[in-house]
Amino acid sequence: MKYFIDQLQQKIEEKDSRICVGLDPHLNLLPEKVLAAELLEDLEANQKEIAAAVLTFNKNIIDAVADMTAVVKPQMAFYEKLGIPGMETLWQTMAYAKTKDLIVLLDGKRNDIGSTAGAYAEAYLENKKTEIDSITINPYLGSDGILPFLRNKERGAFALLRTSNPSAVELQDLKLADGRTVYQAVGDFLRDLGSDYLGECGYSNLAAVVGATYPKELKEIRAQLDSVFFLIPGFGAQGGGASDIKAGFDSYGRGAVVNSSRGINFAYRKEEYAHFGADNYAKAARAAAEKMKKEINEVLR
Ligand SMILES: O=C(O)c1cc(=O)[nH]c(=O)n1[C@@H]1O[C@H](COP(=O)(O)O)[C@@H](O)[C@H]1O
To answer: What is the rounded CA–CA span in Å between residue 265 and residue 60?
Structure first.
């Protein structure tokens, strides 16, 4: 039995790639060749066709980036909004990613009281038929809501620690009576809870999400938590760049993976990759993924 976090770190090193490709099918950004714009005029009536288009798009993106990423991260919201056909597309996308030997991180931000968290864990991390290696969770219900997600040591959980959005500061930066911020307290809590789930690589199966858009906090959190692996979203579309995420890694260039969703999926819409043309969106995505991979490796060298 190999711990989830060891599987992840090993695959990152094999591919020498610290990127995570988000699979967030923003419908209004899909190329016309894949999804005819008129179908979006009635989302409910056209759920089936739209979900089929999303699956085609995802498969082409996965084919284009499979050799240069260790992880893909589908965000559930984009599939849930397409009803049952959307959920089928989500599961088919994850199964397809597994055929390419990728690690699947399902972005669902799940959690609840202990007994319900247990049901989520059974649904996503303990069902032998699922193609999911890990899931994002919200840690704010405390340990009984988190521990069920750690029962299966071959799979892992990424708890929100310091998010990338502008309003992250509103609650996460509040000061506690002991002088720590809320996110620092959450960090200490996650490190302690995860210490019973350490893999051979020195990181825990209980990982954390820290946004690329707050480099100062990222640096501080890395110094605080040496056994917590980070998912760092916010690269590209939200403004984060390679120099911003550098401090999220340890001195060996380990311990983190950086997500980009729109910046890779819809690279064909950017001036830099426009020469590929909308029909070659997958080639544009590959070029953007390659650039991101290189930029991160260079900044860590
Ligand atoms: O948990 C996440 O993945 C997440 C946490 C966070 O703090 N910020 C954040 O952007 N995300 C997710 O990361 C992805 C970022 O997408 P892009 O901004 O298109 O690269 C989306 O799926 C977000 O839901």
So the answer is: 10
pLDDT in tens, 177-216: 999 999 999 999 999 999 999 999 999 999 999 999 999 9
Which CATH number is 95's domain given? 3.20.20.70
Gap from CA of 234 to ligand 1 centroid (Å):
6
Q: Which amino acid residue places its CA nearest to atom 12 of ligand 1?
A: 233
Pocket test residue of 58, 76, 90, 107 for ligand 1, highest count of atoms within 8 A of CB: 107
CA distances from 72 to 209, 219, 228 (A): 15, 24, 20
For the chain, the domain total comes to: 1
What is the ipTM metric for this complex? 0.99
Instruction: Report pLDDT digits (tens) over 64-123.
Output: 999 999 999 999 999 999 999 999 999 999 999 999 999 999 999 999 999 999 999 999
Q: Which domain holds residue 122?
A: 4-300
Any ligand 1 atom below 6 A from CB of 260: yes
Beta strand extents in 75-197 (DSSP E only) = 103-110, 134-137, 156-162
pTM reported for the whole predicted model:
0.98
- Residue 109 among the catalytic residues: yes
